[in-house]
Structures
1.
Amino acid sequence: MTQRVEEVADTAAPFAFDPANVVALICGPEGMTRFAVAGLRRLGVPDRAVWLSMERNMHCAVGFCGHCQLGPAFVCRDGPVFRMDAVSWMLELREV
Ligand code: FES
């Protein structure tokens, strides 16, 4: 039995689509999100068409404790869904 191992966004590669008419919604662990975003970029999908659901452990959930803070953004208050072109720098951060 042969198994294929591929990046998550590569599963979309065999399908014909116009990258200008795509909206991508991504949720999941940040490692997977990084691969999905890289794959979508390779396919020509613009960052403004990609929406991310950021996962964070939350405590207060109203923007007071800072537990979910990523730079100037609070995932609980400002998200958890962000458009990729506004938060691409977040994916460059490691172990936050
Ligand atoms: S969970 Fe407390 S600031 Fe977001």
Note: The chain is about 20% helix and 15% strand.
2.
Amino acid sequence: MDDTDEREQPPALNLPYLLDMLDQMRSAGSLEEVRHFAALLQEQLAASGSTPSASGLLLLNDLTQIAEARTLERACYYTERLIRSVTEVKTTPINDINLNQWKAYDHIWTDSLWVMDRRDSSGVHAADYWGNFVPQIPHQMMLRYTKRGEWVLDTFAGSGTTLIEGQRLGRHTIGVELQAEVAEQARQRVAAEPNPHGVVWDVVVGDSTTVDFPSLLRPYGQQSVQLVVMHPPYFDIIKFSADGRDLANARSLDDFLAKMGMVVERVATVLDRGRYLVLVIGDKYVEGEWVPLGFLTMQEVQRRGFALKSIVVKNFDTTTAKRTQKELWRYRALVGGFYLFKHEYVFIFRKRL
Ligand SMILES: C[S@@+](CC[C@H](N)C(=O)[O-])C[C@H]1O[C@@H](n2cnc3c(N)ncnc32)[C@H](O)[C@@H]1O
């Protein structure tokens, strides 16, 4: 079991000892005998005094399940499963999650509603680039959809949030950003963050609707990436620059969608089949009408060889907004017959095989 706790460990967390005890439980002739061994291990875990570590807690849970089994056959089945969970690693081709210890991954989210009250502001992460996403988004996506040492492409790099997270998690990253100045600031930010896994990263100045993605990977001997992250401008909500190539300056909604389609077509050429593309985007409200920008963009991706796997709704519930402003908006909503929204979508697609 992976245990980073530095306290002296109870014997039950010593792997050879634990396996020996579990082996005796597996070959026990009666439920009483199984319960005897389970109780012994539980006592040892409890006797360690201080709060048990994460793996100690999981073990306690499993031992309780074994001790409460109603038949010897069931108790042996749970014991067998516990032995497998500490001896075998079972992963899928898309991440490093050990499915034999899936209960130990509480930090990986699987629900589709993410209500947050704070952004991760650790290390070099900061909220100073208007329009950057919360680091928790690329963090969760890389843990779910990449293995350590794989490559991630962010087509709208902005302040480099994805690259910072990649560096922390041991994933190589390439970011493309239209504005040279913003790209330079991102480079400085990423460089200021420790690189414990020695990953490769780069922020390239370019227009993602026309950039040649294979040529960005070539210098690293790489032909493809294993995850694409796209966090484009939400059409014209934030004016990022005066550049005509900026998606925030698209001539119309249709033009914005066509350009997003172009980006998807280009990244699809370097994304491995069966791997994932993540689109983070929100909706718009114009002249009394809700414009479902998120869903319209989602369809552009679906039309280009991608299967929609999930839609996550992310809301940021801050208490810092000014009360009078909040009340004014609430009044407007009541008068105008609409709902106030701050939520965004994280659309998750898989490139078809
Ligand atoms: C929503 S922000 C991305 C923020 C980023 N996720 C972060 O955390 O900092 C969109 C970014 O896309 C850039 N951009 C706009 N049009 C682009 C294009 N055609 N190619 C590349 N980048 C573009 C903008 O300059 C802006 O920095």
Note: The pocket of S-adenosylmethionine is lined by residues 129, 131-133, 156, 158-159, 161, 176-179, 182, 207-209, 231-233, 240-241, 245-247 (CB under 6 Å).
